[in-house]
Structures are given as C-alpha cells and as structure tokens.
C-alpha cells in the first residue's frame, strides 16, 4: 500500500470517528434517541453511511466533512472532553503509528483482523484501536486487553446497550461509574461518547483487576460474573487478546 493510500485511510478514519462522535451529539440533543430499542441498527446505519462516503468521496469532500464536523463540535462546546482530558492528551501518544506505539504495519494488521472478525469497516475500527491505546497508556492497563474487552463486550458498536443498562463500546453501567467521568459530570449520556466510554472502561478494567487480585478474576469482576467458577468471560477476552497479538506479531515478521 502506498504512503498516499495509507494517508487517505487515516483521514477516512478520522472523519469516521468524528461522525461517530457527531452521532453521539445528535443523540444527546434529540431526546427520542436516548432510550433506543434498536441501537445496533442505528449504529450499523451510521457506520455503513460513513463507510460508503469514505469509499466514494474524494479528498476535498473529506476535508469539507471534517471542517463541518469541527464546526458542529465547536458550536456544541467542543468534543465533550474536559480541560483535564485535553491536558492529558498533550502528553498522550497521537494517532497514527505513534499513537499505537507500534509500526504502521502492525497497527494495520490489528485493524484488518478486527474488521474481518467483527464485520465492521476498518476505517471505523482504526480510531477505536488508537483510542484504546491512549486510554490504556494513560490509565496503566494493557491496550490490547482494552481492545479485546471492547470486542467481546460490544463488537465495536458504540451505541450498544444491554438489558441491564450497560452502555457503549466497553459496556459500562453509568450508575456505578459516575466517579470515573472527567470533570465530575453526572450525565449518563456522556457514556455514549466513544472516547469517554473507552477511557472510563479502561479505568473500570484496571480497578477490577487490582481489586480482584489478578487478570482472570478481574475480568470476571468487570463482567459482573464473579460467580462463574469456569471463568468463561475471562477466557473469551484472553483468547481474543491472544488472537489480536498474533495478528500483530505476524505483520512484524519478514514477509508477514
């Protein structure tokens, strides 16, 4: 793949992520979408629409879309992140090869593996992988574990909602984790913002592992399945993390 093609892919990923966050903003503004019954269908429609636009639009159109998204976010008061988050982001790894802390080939391999396995456009997966790395690095938990939990919990559907009220990519239950929001916000809707959800999920994951005294027990606690003596949830997450790492390692081998 040429450098120009990779650059185009990164721009598409950026626009995709902005549209996902725009979708959250629209959901926040429109009350009728707050208690949706078909979150998967809605998310799929957004992802499909933006993926089609990414496939058939030129660079100029992407720039226009990006500028429009930035204008919307500016009018809405920014990206929904507090000053604390913005300050942290100054020292956090940036998107691209630097953000993943890996070679671009390894990063692409992870994205391609996840896109195939979960049938989600790679341009939608890519910024989520980057966000997971930033959150994991900031909180102090394995970024690949964050990605694996995200995969098992939501299949990369940012609007997923469980019958018990767990929300978003990391399936966080708002009423239990208000203290982990930036700036002391008490708005449950914030949990549907992709960046917020991933960061809060990473914090919950670290807290669970530390509190339970180990990885498997911590994963079971994260899932609310401490009574499962077979550790089925933990096994699924660990197996997925292993597959993600294998995809990454394969790309790092000569001819991989």
Can you characterise this structure?
This protein is mostly helical. It has one domain (3-252): Lysozyme (Orthogonal Bundle), CATH 1.10.530.10. It is 65% helix and 0% strand. It has 11 helices and no strands. The longest helix has 27 residues, at 3-29. The two termini are 14 Å apart. Residues 27-101 have low confidence and may be disordered.
Give short descriptive properties of this protein.
256 residues; 65% helix; Lysozyme; globular; 11 helices
Short recap of the structure:
The chain contains 11 helices and no strands.
Number of strands: 0
N-end to C-end Cα span: 14 Å
**What is the domain tally?**
1
Q: Predict the CATH topology.
A: Lysozyme
Q: Report the biggest beta sheet as strand number plus sense, adding barrel if it closes.
A: none
Query: Which class in CATH terms?
Result: Mainly Alpha
What is the arithmetic mean of pLDDT? 72
Named CATH architecture: Orthogonal Bundle
Category from helices, strands and their pairing:
mainly alpha
Order of helices and strands: HHHHHHHHHHH
Rounded to an integer, what's the Rg over CA atoms?
18 Å
Percent helix, as a range, is 55-70%
The multimeric state of the shown protein is single chain
**DSSP helical segment count:** 11
How much of the sequence is in beta strands? under 5%
- Catalogue the unreliable spans: 27-101
């Amino acid at each position: 793949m040429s450098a120009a093609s990779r650059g185009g892919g990164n721009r598409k990923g950026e626009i995709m992520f902005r549209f996902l966050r725009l979708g959250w903003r629209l959901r926040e503004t429109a009350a009728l979408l707050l208690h949706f019954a078909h979150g998967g269908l809605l998310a799929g429609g957004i992802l499909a629409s933006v993926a089609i636009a990414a496939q058939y639009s030129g660079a100029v159109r992407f720039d226009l879309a990006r500028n429009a998204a930035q204008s919307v976010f500016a009018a809405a008061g920014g990206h929904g992140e507090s000053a604390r988050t913005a300050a942290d982001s100054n020292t956090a790894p940036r998107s691209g090869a630097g953000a993943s802390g890996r070679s671009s080939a390894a990063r692409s391999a992870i994205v391609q593996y996840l896109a195939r396995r979960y049938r989600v456009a790679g341009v939608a997966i890519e910024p989520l992988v980057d966000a997971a790395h930033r959150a994991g690095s900031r909180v102090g938990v394995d970024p690949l574990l964050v990605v694996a939990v995200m995969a098992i919990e939501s299949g990369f559907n940012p609007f997923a909602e469980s019958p018990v009220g767990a929300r978003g990519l990391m399936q966080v239950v708002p009423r239990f984790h208000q203290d982990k929001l930036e700036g002391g916000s008490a708005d449950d809707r914030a949990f549907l913002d992709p960046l917020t959800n991933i960061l809060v999920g990473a914090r919950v994951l670290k807290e669970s592992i530390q509190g339970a005294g180990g990885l498997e027990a911590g994963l079971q606690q994260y899932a609310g399945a401490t009574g499962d003596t077979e550790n089925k949830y933990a096994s699924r997450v660990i197996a997925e993390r292993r597959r993600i790492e294998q995809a990454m390692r394969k790309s790092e081998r000569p001819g991989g």
